[in-house]
Amino acid sequence: MKKMFIYLFLLNLLFAQQELKIEGYDHMPLHTKLLWGKSGLLRKLNLAPVNRKDELKLRVRMLQTHQKLALASLGLVAYQSNLGNKMLDGDYSYYEDHKKFSRIAWVTYMTSASLSYFAPPALKYEKKISSMKIHRLLSYVHFTGMMTTPILGVNIAKKSSDYDKAVRLHQNVALVTLGSLTISALLTVLPY
Fold first, then answer.
1. Rounded to whole angstroms, how far apart are CA atoms 125 and 22?
2. The dihedral sign for the CA sequence 179, 184, 185, 186
3. Which letter, b or e, does each residue of 106-134 get, where b requires 16 or more Cβ atoms within 10 Å of its Cβ?
4. Cβ pair 78, 175 in contact under 8 A
5. I need a surface site. Which of 44, 125, 179, 183 has the fewest CB within 10 A?
6. pLDDT tens-digit map of 70-93
7. Is residue 142 within 8 Å of residue 187, measured between CB atoms?
């Protein structure tokens, strides 16, 4: 009898992750399905936690860290905007700080984005629009902005034939990025 219980216990461990128990699986974001779905990449590579409970614990840790780093990123991007405006007003003594903090802001943002993107799936997904779905949609805007803004900044200093146009483009993309980051942050505290 003892051997049978040990055998059942080992079988349970072996096949524990076959039953995901995710409500609304069809509404799970595509990238989450590709990474964490029933035959997702992280499952195929055996990188997923052993059971769903551990997955959810990992998800909570990753998303809490994402939130903290995202707030730091928002602050850094806002500070960058302030430095950029000072330079636009003619005070180029902030150039080195602007350059240095742009790197810090970018690394902080990308680390935060990665934590959110690679987090294990939630317990439940719904078809309806929610503040988190809008938050996710805005992430495409600010991710694109965070990828583009540094390139546009380098273009101002080194390659642009029209300095004023290059500065305006850099500034506009940076403001859209800051705006979408701010709205995304505010959406996380909405109850729906």
1. 8
2. positive
3. bebbbebbebbbbbbbbeebeeeeeeebe
4. no
5. 44
6. 999 999 999 999 999 999 999 999
7. no
In this structure, which amino acid lies at residue 132? M
The residue whose two tokens read 């003619």 is 90
Spatial distance between the Cα atoms of 27 and 22, rounded to a whole number of angstroms = 10
The token pair at 140 is: 């495409």
C-beta of residue 28 within 8 angstroms of C-beta of residue 126: no
Tell me what pLDDT residue 191 has.
Answer: 72
Cα separation of 68 and 165, whole Å?
35
Packing angle, helices 163-187 and 131-154, rounded to 10: 160
What does the pLDDT average to over 174-181?
Answer: 97
The one-letter amino acid at 151: I
SS3 letters for the chain? CHHHHHHHHHHHHHCHHHCCCCECHHHCCHHHHHHHCCCCHHHHCCCCCCCHHHHHHHHHHHHHHHHHHHHHHHHHHHHHHHHHHHHHCCCHHHHHHHHHHHHHHHHHHHHHHHHHHCCCCCCECCCCCCHHHHHHHHHHHHHHHHHHHHHHHHHHHHHCCCHHHHHHHHHHHHHHHHHHHHHHHHHCCCCC
